[in-house]
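Figure 2 data, in text form.
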Amino acid sequence: MNTLSRMVVALAIGVMGAGPGGAQSLQERNEQMFRQMQEVRGVSNAEIRRIREIFAGSSWIGQGNPSVTRHPMTPEEAAARIGGSVEAVQQSYRNRQWERICGGPYRAPLYDPETERPEDAEVCVDMFEYPNIPMAYPVVWVRANEAHALCQAEGGRLGDAHEWEGAAAGQLLPPDYQFQLGSQQAMRAWHNANWAHTRNVYSIGQWRSGVCATGSSKSASCNGGSFTGCGSNTYPAGSFPQCQSPLGAFDIDGNAAEHMNLPLREDQMASRGSTTLGVTEMKGSWFIWDTIRAHEHWARWRAPYWHGSRVLSPSSHRNYHLGFRCFYDVN
């Protein structure tokens, strides 16, 4: 067994719990994840130093509170379900053409297939939720400003709402924010009404239970969203290969919900280089969605202003099933 395999086994033991006195701490699990990011994705030492600094500013960011999180699958179980080892499955998800376009592994180009080719993409998206490693658990308990900083540490950013929607729906279209309406509530209402004809279209087409990472259980001790009571009972990323959008983004439906940027003015668009950004938007379904359907989540749906704040607010929302993925401008 090589170094990476030993590390993944240790990670699985830690997140599933190793009995009294044997479970790993959140910090130990994070350190294992940082090493995995370097070994699997090639994240540089300088980037990892910045990522460590961001994680050090929070007592919560990670793959879930180890004392209550009980993942439904280990990485090894998920890989065996697909038909290989963890390393083999990780390699199977790599797309060399996309790597040349996007400048890094496990990124997918976003474009309009009706008029463009992958080579025409001006933006790419992480194929998986952060840390963007197949067979690794998503990072949760992260605020929007922390998510944006973590993307920036690797040369990326949070996506604008229309970019996330394009990744989900399989067609990146021009933005349609209707800034002249003057309020985020009016902008959301216009957008949802304009896309009502796609109400039952998800990243996997029509909704089918069991296709995505939506069959886990909520912790019995979860009493409204506390860190001590709510386990982040997610699956390893990529555990469900059919849970793929037409443009190659996995787990948009299922696993963690995801932060992104909803601009209220043109100068708040991350896709146009804004450093101020807009307000928080949370998208996607999450890991118990086949049993608890709390709200709509079709591919181009924009949510009400739940737990709303500016993206860069140090008090933006975080919880046990909320993560993110990064977007990258193609130069």
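Caption note: The chain has a mean pLDDT of 93.
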